[in-house]
Amino acid sequence: MAMAFCLECGNTITLGTRLHEGQQLICAECGARLEVINVMPLELDWVYAEPCHDPEEYWQIKNELLGVISDERDSHRI
């Protein structure tokens, strides 16, 4: 049986014996959503949102993450 530590709170997480990349789990202590990104050696990462396919939403999220105040697309317009 594999064991790992929660990336958020450090709680010990007991995993099943048949792990696979992409397997998701939730920490019982803090509720963090984690994903197995590598089986050998065992490596976890936070679960991220699904890819964004809406162009307007993409620019909004990108600007928020980068802290951009003005829209980059405006600088390319004449």
Question: What this model shows, in words?
Answer:
With 78 residues, the protein is α+β, with helices and mostly antiparallel strands. The protein has two domains: 3-46, Rubrerythrin, domain 2; 49-78, no CATH class. Helix content is 15%, strand content 24%. The protein has one helix and five strands, in the order E-E-E-E-E-H. The chain has one helix spanning 55-66; strands at residues 3-5, 12-14, 24-26, 33-38, 43-46. The protein has a three-stranded antiparallel β-sheet with strand order 3-4-5, with no helix packed on it. A hairpin with a 6-residue loop joins strand 3 (24-26) and strand 4. The longest helix is centred in the last third of the chain and has 12 residues, at 55-66. The protein is elongated and about 45 Å long.
Low-confidence blocks of residues: none
The second-level CATH architecture of the largest domain is: Single Sheet
CA distance, first residue to last residue: 61 Å
The overall pLDDT average reads 78
Percent strand: 15-25%
Biggest sheet descriptor: 3 strands, antiparallel
